[in-house]
Amino acid sequence: MKINISKKFKNSVVTWLGLYPTIIVSLLLEDWLISLNLYTRTFVLTVIVVPLIVYFIIPFLNNVVRRF
Known about the structure:
This protein has 68 residues and is mainly α. It has 3 helices and no strands. Helix 1 crosses helix 3. The longest helix has 28 residues. It is elongated, with a radius of gyration of 15 Å.
């Protein structure tokens, strides 16, 4: 069964579902990252989060929601 959902809505849900767990992971890394200064901490988080989102999480979620 295919449900008619707007592409913008679907993309926003996929993005939210992808970002939410990465924010949780970044909060779990907070104890380790707190010793770094703000710029280094931001750099480390973006180096981890951006490739994870772009290459793994969003493509996986796009495949999952393709049915809808």
